[in-house]
Specification:
alpha/beta, eight-stranded mixed β-sheet, two-stranded antiparallel sheet, 25% helix, binds cytidine-5'-triphosphate, binds calcium ion, FMN, ligase, metal-binding, phosphopantothenoylcysteine decarboxylase activity
Length: 223
């Protein structure tokens, strides 16, 4: 569609997008993370930009570049991502496409852990803050439309429906990431849009097409 920045149905709107994985350090050379290229989040940010929105793009260490024409806030950990989201300007809509690590390593080391003849290292874990739930449940400053993702490997609709209610977001884009779909790491996505009204099954399509369709829906919802 390629409208000039600032034109289009989302002109004057501010939209926040989270994207990419987070990296949770174990020591200076090691981390735990989710598998995520950041491609779907980047495509969503670009599609919103193309409809005229001002986009704040809070991204973990993704393997695809951030789109041009958006305000990029680069973070590493889930806790930093929450901080960046809290510091962003009030948003009309927020899309949480990041694959946030659910846990961080407690007592991450300042120095590289060395192999040790005395035994294997053990790691402690603590739960990360849930950024989507935190924003969805805000009493003031909640974006008018909050959209989450649910990457599931089984019972996709059921899990996504429960997730929407538990977190308090408006929409969930649910996708089946079980290995046999070949979705993980690919250029296509197959999603179901779960809202209070029900479930829309979208055909399997290119991630850019998913992004364009979502951006259109968001523009419609914001009116
Ligand atoms: N999410 C988030 N902060 C977290 C974990 C998840 O903002 N700490 C967001 C993701 O960006 C996504 C949605 O929540 O939009 C769902 O993530 P998912 O991992 O599917 O849900 P979880 O609640 O972490 O449940 P589980 O991994 O146990 O299925
Ligand atoms: Ca999770």
């Amino acid at each position: 569609i390629g409208t000039a920045l600032g034109d289009g149905p989302l002109k004057g709107r501010h939209v926040l997008v989270t994207s990419g994985p987070t990296h949770e350090p174990i020591d200076p050379v090691r981390y735990i993370a989710n598998r995520s290229s950041g491609a779907q989040g980047a495509a969503i940010a670009a599609a919103l930009r193309d409809l005229g929105a001002r986009v704040t793009f809070v991204t973990g260490p993704a393997s695809v570049p951030a789109p041009a024409g958006v305000e990029v806030v680069a973070v590493e950990t889930a806790r930093q991502m929450l901080e960046a989201v809290e510091a962003a300007d009030p948003a009309d809509a927020a899309i949480f496409a990041a694959a946030v690590a659910d846990w961080h390593v407690t007592e991450a080391r300042d120095q590289k852990i060395k192999k040790d003849a005395r035994g294997l290292p053990t790691l402690g874990f603590a739960e990360n803050p849930d950024i989507l739930a935190t924003v969805s449940q805000r009493e003031t400053g909640r974006p008018g439309l909050v959209v989450g993702f649910a990457a599931e490997t089984e019972n996709v609709i059921e899990h996504a429906t429960a997730k929407r209610e538990r977190k308090g977001c408006d929409w969930i884009l649910a996708n089946d990431v079980s290995p046999e779909t070949g979705i993980m790491g690919g250029t296509e996505n197959k999603v179901h849009l779960v809202t209070a009204e029900g479930v829309e099954d979208w055909p399997r399509m290119d991630k850019h097409a998913v992004a364009a369709r979502l951006a259109e829906k968001i523009a419609e919802a914001l009116g």
